[in-house]
Amino acid sequence: MGMQMLLIVTGASKGLGKAITTGFCCMDSSEQQRQQLDRLHVVLAARSANLLEELGRTIMHHNESTKVRVTLSCFAVDLSDLDQLDSHFDRMFQEVNLSGFDRVVFVNNAGSLGYLGPCSSSPSLTGMKATIDFNVTSALWLSSRFAQLVQENSNPDTQKVTLINISSLLAVEAFPTMGIYAAGKAARDNYHATMAKEMPRIKVLNYAPGPLETDMVEEIRAAPKLDKSLKPAFDKKLIDPQDSAKKLVDLVFSDKFESGSHVDYYDISS
């Protein structure tokens, strides 16, 4: 019997989240890991129902000609709404039995850019709180709930569990006028590194995908208070999200990383 895999991706409808989803779900059938896969259940969460449905059709169409049995659950939810976060999580996992899978991969990707400008001129306390609520509190709570679920419902003898926090170079290096976003990434990195020490049952990866050509970078390019020294780095053509996603997928399946480590796109050989 082939491998039974569960994939969960937040912020899956566009950008890197979409690329990671298709990277895992639409791998070439000649790849070794794809040949081993018999069943794939995919749980996707994002704000846009239309974009999730479109992505779902892409996944199902790709797998029509393969031997992989694919099932899909899409949840149009706002993960920045902390009052509803627990109920959203419960909905996502209410019909999923973790112990029924050989491989479980949770990609904690959802987040926002927030305010770009000097730390001394953040626009409002409300705005800062909203960004931190989404990028930090929501992300950490989702990982915490997932870890609890793994402890209660998984089989440590037969199952491999991977938790991927989408990080950034900004988690480890200061960039002027990007302080709030960087603070969120640094907090996420440290929390997930701590989880790795506390829970050897879960293999944890902080993955920095590199500067990507996405809608988010268009926001950065248009930001009126972005430090001038950063403009050349963002004005050039950046990394295709699909390229970064492929490196991540290959790394996860190779399992050649230390749990809790911060791995950058440029650290991985092609």
From TrEMBL:
One of its GO terms (cellular component) is cytoplasm. GO terms for molecular function: sepiapterin reductase (NADP+) activity. InterPro entries: Biopterin_syn/organic_redct, NAD(P)-bd_dom_sf, SDR_fam. It is found in: Cytoplasm. Keywords: Cytoplasm, NADP, Oxidoreductase. The keyword NAD does not apply. Coiled coil: none annotated. Its main location: cytoplasm. This is Sepiapterin reductase. GO terms for biological process: tetrahydrobiopterin biosynthetic process.
